[in-house]
Amino acid sequence: VENVAATTATFKSITALAVGPDGSVYIADGDAYRVRRVDPAGIISTVAGNGTSGGPPRSAEGKLATSVSVANVTDIAVGPDGTLYLVSGWYNLLSIDKNGTLHFLNQEWINTVKLAEGVPMSAQVVDSLQSVAVTAQGSVLLTADEWQRQQKSGAFAREWIRELAPSGLVPPIA
Fold it and tell me: Which of 76, 99, 103, 142 is 20 to 30 Å from 90 at the Cα level?
């Protein structure tokens, strides 16, 4: 149900919450494959996801965010300009602009991490994104596991935090 009082809405599985600069509350409803927005007047609407399972295909770039699937949303954040950021499918970093248009902010996952400092995020390949936050200046902070293979000794993970500055560069944080 769209554009009704949020108090009448039901959720299947809330996986993340964020608050926008205007006081709107954004709710990732994992099992409903949607992200909802409760505006300051208490009205709820869908801002991402069409209710079907599966992550958005690369062909969804530039399309209306409510027309594509957004599955496995593990975290959301809202920038000072109102841009919504989603971690979807463990490896997709998505943004949804004020017009509701979906954008991929990283390259498709290829079972490895090749995160390089000084390289635009759009050229990065990232595995196991976990969380996203946005600073007051509009920089996006990301956390993830970096899986690497050692010869005959199995896999190990290294946690990292990186900053996606408004210029698109990814300088190291930790």
Answer: 99
